[in-house]
Specification:
- 58% of the residues lie in helices and 11% in strands.
- By secondary structure, it is α+β, with helices and mostly antiparallel strands.
- It has one domain.
- The protein has a four-stranded mixed sheet.
- Strand 3 and strand 4 form a beta hairpin.
- The longest helix is centred in the middle third of the chain and has 25 residues, at 49-73.
- The protein is globular, with a radius of gyration of 13 Å.
- The chain starts with a helix and ends with a strand.
Length: 108
C-alpha cells in the first residue's frame, strides 16, 4: 500500500509539471484567472472564453493522467485526483488561488 501511494505521488509530480501548458497555466494562475480546486482540477475565477478553454484543456489532460495512474495502481480516479490536489495546492506560489473546503477562494 505504501509503495502504491509513493508511486501515485511520484506520478502526480509529473502531472503537475506538464511542460506543454505550464506557461499558460502559470500565467493564468499568476493573473488570478484560475485557481486550484480540492477536486484536483483547475477552476475559472474569471469568466472569459480563453480562461474556459484553458481550464478545459488542463482538466482534460489531468483527467487522462489521473485515469492512467488510477488504472496502474488500482485506485479510484477521484482518489488519485484528490491526492494530486493536495500536492498541487501545497506547491502553489504565493499569490495563487485555491479553493478552500468551504468553497471560497483563498490566496496562498
Amino acid at each position: 500500500m505504501k509503495f502504491r501511494l509513493l508511486t501515485i505521488i511520484a506520478l502526480l509530480g509529473m502531472v503537475i509539471s506538464l511542460p506543454a501548458m505550464a506557461l499558460d497555466l502559470q500565467e493564468a494562475r499568476s493573473s488570478g484567472l484560475v485557481g486550484e480546486a480540492l477536486s484536483g482540477y483547475v477552476e475559472p475565477i474569471v469568466s472569459r472564453p480563453d480562461v474556459y478553454a484553458l481550464v478545459a484543456e488542463v482538466n482534460a489532460k489531468r483527467k487522462q493522467e489521473y485515469t492512467r495512474i488510477s488504472q496502474q495502481n488500482g485506485q479510484p480516479v477521484d482518489i488519485v485526483a484528490k491526492l494530486a490536489a493536495e500536492q498541487i495546492i501545497n506547491r502553489l506560489d504565493n499569490g495563487h488561488y485555491f479553493k478552500a473546503p468551504d468553497g471560497s477562494w483563498k490566496r496562498r
